[in-house]
Specification:
With 93 residues, this protein is mostly helical. 71% of the residues lie in helices and 0% in strands. The mean pLDDT is 86.
Amino acid sequence: MDIASLIYNNGYEAIVSGCLAAVVAQIIKFVTHLVVYRKIDFRVFTTTGGMPSSHTAGVVSLATTVGIIAGFSSLYFAVAVGNMLVVMYDAAG
């Protein structure tokens, strides 16, 4: 077994990309709050809601990664898109 098979296409790419997208969205939200209100508020990192939506960023990234790895016509991608639509609907309402 080579080292590449331990790193690539094992599912962790999808988890890491989803979590990383959610964290980046929270950082963008923090910076936007800092620029608009001119004060530092660390509660922005832990609060839900607002734009950009970290939930939406996470599930879109997850679905995209699953599509790239498993194929955009796979059952895994269809399930990820179904999950994505539910989360995005909930985030919008």
